[in-house]
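pls design
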């Protein structure tokens, strides 16, 4: 396939939401609004802390603490950022599609790993998943996966015998299964688990690009790809299981998009694979049931019921397999709501977090995404419907999670599976300003990872 650099990123998109100085002024106004939101959330958060309200945040709106530092990954992170800023825009315009995806994945992994290494391999990678609240704590308990699935719900509540650790009990058993599988393959321990999360999470930008291209716009996918590589949320992708969740959900949507836009047995295979991945995704985190909105976006664009039915078949197969094995998603969800109601969430005021969550998300998105979303809102038809609807699906998922009250704080990590899709509107930014926006994304990310100590 040819690689026109400006199939839909030429003058039309350059003028999306306002071209020239007016457009840039509006972009900067959107960024300024994000900065104001963050500052307000910080000030109000500190006031709550001073008033004795336990919001369990040390640097609101983030779960982090002030800790200026540098580390082994500092130089590497700066080099990766410089390479993407200087050469990324040209590469996406000229490279063959398949090679571009490989390079993007490698650079995304390098970016995420170098950011984690700012804290050192022990504290930044290996130790993140080995704490008392993390998943690896319970891996030695699993002698038989079948038995674990049958008895999983019996250990969710803290009042039950031998309760699971915090994160295992608060999630479906799929994520514990992943780490058990790694352990059985000889890849046990925090180091291997952390690298695995980075490899999968770092592939999310590639899956997003594949989905956008499949639904009608290679040029939009190309233009957004460097922003996906320098995703500020990579600070939390490396290392948290939520980074892995982001990659799995992104590939589920990509497979469904490929299935819905192709014909024959390959289309059916893609659709079934996408449905199965989506079925497994909802067994990684209860909140990822909101990933279903991406399926609706794919259906709205392609208007093809057949592939959706194949996807539904794959989804039902995975959900059914878990149910037959002894774990029923709805039972687990009901029990987790009890845990959540009795957790730190009960002292975190909804009236604050319902908007402060968006401030936390801003750190994962960066200024370029705010400007891109502003442009997309001003002119939604500036990109093909597929790209616009995928972005809309991500926003709907975020707002639903926010309003539900089941995500109070820590959303810079929890909402990574939705945040990766909000790099797509960056394709609307003026091409001549791409390097400046990429540099701004990198600067924010480097500031966060070097000035703060993030828990995840």
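designed seq:
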């Amino acid at each position: 396939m040819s690689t026109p650099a400006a199939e839909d990123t030429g003058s039309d998109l350059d003028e999306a939401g306002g071209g020239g100085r007016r457009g840039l002024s509006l972009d900067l106004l959107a960024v300024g609004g994000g900065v104001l939101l963050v500052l307000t959330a910080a000030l109000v958060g500190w006031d709550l802390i001073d008033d004795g309200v336990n919001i369990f945040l040390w640097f609101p709106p983030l779960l982090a603490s002030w800790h200026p530092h540098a580390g082994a990954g500092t130089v590497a992170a700066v080099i990766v950022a410089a390479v993407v800023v200087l050469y990324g825009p040209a590469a996406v315009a000229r490279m063959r599609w398949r090679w571009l995806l490989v390079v993007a994945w490698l650079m995304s992994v390098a970016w995420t790993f170098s950011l984690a290494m700012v804290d050192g391999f022990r504290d930044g990678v290996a130790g993140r998943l080995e704490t008392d609240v993390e998943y690896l704590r319970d891996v030695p308990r699993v002698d038989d996966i079948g038995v674990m699935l049958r008895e999983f719900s019996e250990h969710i509540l803290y009042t039950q015998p031998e309760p699971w650790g915090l994160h295992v009990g608060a999630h479906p058993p799929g994520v514990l299964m992943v780490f058990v599988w790694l352990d059985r393959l000889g890849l046990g321990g925090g180091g291997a688990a952390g690298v695995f999360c980075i490899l999968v999470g770092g592939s999310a930008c590639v899956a997003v690009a594949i989905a956008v291209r499949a639904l009608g716009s290679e040029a939009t996918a190309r233009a957004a790809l460097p922003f996906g590589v320098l995703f500020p949320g990579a600070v939390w992708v490396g290392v948290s299981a939520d980074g892995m969740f982001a990659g799995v959900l992104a590939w589920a949507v990509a497979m469904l998009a490929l299935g819905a836009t192709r014909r024959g047995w390959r289309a059916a295979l893609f659709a079934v694979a996408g449905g199965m991945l989506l079925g497994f995704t909802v067994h990684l985190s209860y909140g990822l049931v909101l990933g279903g909105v991406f399926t609706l976006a794919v259906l709205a664009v392609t208007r093809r019921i057949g592939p959706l039915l194949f996807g539904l078949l794959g989804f039902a197969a995975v959900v059914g397999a878990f149910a037959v094995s002894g774990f029923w998603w709805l039972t687990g969800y009901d029990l987790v709501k009890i845990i959540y109601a009795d957790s730190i969430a009960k002292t975190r005021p909804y009236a604050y977090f319902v908007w402060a969550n968006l401030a936390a998300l801003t750190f994962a998105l960066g200024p370029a995404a705010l400007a891109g979303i502003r442009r997309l809102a001003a002119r939604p038809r500036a990109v093909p419907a597929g790209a616009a609807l995928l972005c809309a699906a991500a926003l709907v998922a975020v707002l639903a999670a926010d309003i539900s009250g089941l995500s109070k704080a820590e959303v810079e990590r929890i909402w990574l599976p939705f945040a990766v899709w909000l790099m797509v509107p960056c394709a609307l930014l003026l091409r001549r300003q791409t390097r400046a926006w990429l540099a701004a994304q990198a600067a924010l990310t480097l500031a966060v990872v070097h000035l703060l100590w993030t828990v995840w």
